[in-house]
Design brief:
This is J domain-containing protein. Pfam families: DnaJ (PF00226). It comes from Thermosulfurimonas dismutans. This protein is mainly alpha-helical and 101 residues long. It is 61% helix and 0% strand. The protein has a domain of 47 residues. The longest helix is centred in the middle third of the chain and has 20 residues. 10% of the residues are buried.
Length: 101
């Protein structure tokens, strides 16, 4: 992703007051709270609402199109998880008897 796109995402995240790691549900919940406060129909700020709408659209679009890994990896695994990922199904190391076929 281009640096200017990351800057836009970072600005959107900050505008909505979100942490660096968040879920779609948290994005939606935070947007709804802010939209209720700033919506022009509630004597809010039309420009702020426009910025919130754009930030929400940008973040949700990113979530919708971000490619995620659906296979296990070693990154972030603690010692027990690492061991299981590498040797957990091996009958020699796991303590399980091999299935006889």
């Amino acid at each position: 992703m281009f640096p200017h796109k990351w800057r836009q995402l970072e600005e959107a995240r900050r505008l909505l007051g979100l942490p660096r790691q968040t879920s779609r549900a948290e994005i939606r919940e935070r947007y709804r709270k802010l939209a209720a406060r700033y919506h022009p129909d509630r004597a809010g700020d039309a420009e702020k609402m426009k910025a919130l709408n754009e930030a929400y659209r940008l973040l949700m679009d990113y979530c919708e199109h971000y490619r995620i890994e659906l296979a296990p990896n070693d990154q972030g695994a603690d010692a027990e998880e690492w061991w299981f990922l590498h040797f957990g199904e091996d009958p020699v190391w796991s303590g399980k008897k091999a299935r006889e076929e």
